[in-house]
Write a structure and sequence with these properties.
Blueprint (H helix, E strand, L loop, with lengths): L17 E5 L4 E8 L17 E9 L2 E11 L3 E8 L2 E9 L6
Antiparallel strand pairs: 1-6, 2-5, 3-4, 3-6
Amino acid sequence: MQDAEQSSIVAVWSKSYYSFDVVDRRNKVFITVHQEDERIKGVDLRRAYLDVGIALMRRTGDGVELVDLKDFTNARQVELEANLDPGSYLIVPRTTGCTMF
């Protein structure tokens, strides 16, 4: 999905997404995607982190609209903070599946 106003912003649908509703009043949400920590016993230390990001979308009568986008980062976690009005939302973890050095 490409943002109509900023063609450089592209959100890629994932087969895994999370849906939630905000009811009654405006709410602040914190969304975080974590990768497996290399400090955990048994984790393959040769595996590098993937580049990850988050797309936050709001469901509309016609489909979805992009609310916020955290661009790709090559780190253990990526975070997004947003103030959301009542409505139905989707969180889509994003990755190219590539490791950036």
